[in-house]
Amino acid sequence: MRIVxxxxxxxxxxxxxxxxxxxxxxxxxxxxxxxxxDLPRVTTTLIPHDAPSGEIDTLVRERLGHQRALYxxxxxxxxxLNPDLLVTQALCDVxxxxxxxxxxxxxxxxxxxxxxxLEPMKLAExxxxxxxxxxxxxxxxxxxxxxxxxxxxxxxxEVISRQVEQRPRVxxxxxxxxxxxxxxxxxxxxxxxGGIEVIAPEGKPSRTMAHGELLAAWPDVLVIALCGFGxxxxxxxxxxxxxxxxxxxxxxxxDGRVYVIDGNQYFxxxxxxxxDSVELLAHLLxxxxxxxxxxxxEYAVHLAGAIRS
Length: 309
What we know:
Helices cover 41% and strands 15% of the residues. It is of the alpha/beta class.
């Protein structure tokens, strides 16, 4: 079995299933587990991640509006890798190579590899994707074990969260310029962690929102986890956001309950580490009930001190 992953979450799923040796190619964004950074890259992007967030948003909207690709396949590399299985998605045009291009590439390759398309909107569907990849790769038993372990961890968080008498009002932002709500599985993660996402409904895509909508939501906790950005890049956008009119008056800001999380590693990727995201969020919302996750020191920043100063 020779597997090529066309999105970071699929790469994480493949590796969680113990298929490290079968993984022969990944995208330019795949970075976890760390060894995948040394694998051949089969995609390129036209999105300049070092540009200001507003410019990135404008470029993405322009290209999508004209049905022009944001990502492209390196067909020569893909042909050389000769995969048996391609794992991709049709969930978000901003996140991966277009489904039509993947299908066309698969048909053009000598062995015509199987294409597995992942489109999860909720956490249970993410778990189903793990089972689907496991079936396609012939490791169904391992997939069932992985999913059972993840479900047990989620259930543990949910049971503890039931003890919460007062659930905080939460807003989790996926982008700051313009403002984007969270979407898909993330509002569900907030609920499981013992909070209430007061703007975004469960199982629906993220969307732009007006500044006034955020102010009207009046969140007790504000989480900033920008899609595709690590902590350092996210923090570059935070000061301007906090300086906007009315932000300083929000309960979350007044009470020092603003958190920045590495959205590139957590929340954005519909793979096994969404369970890590639940555990991290549960601790941020209810530290008296949920233990501090090991990854928190590396992937999360509490802005209380910076705001107060």
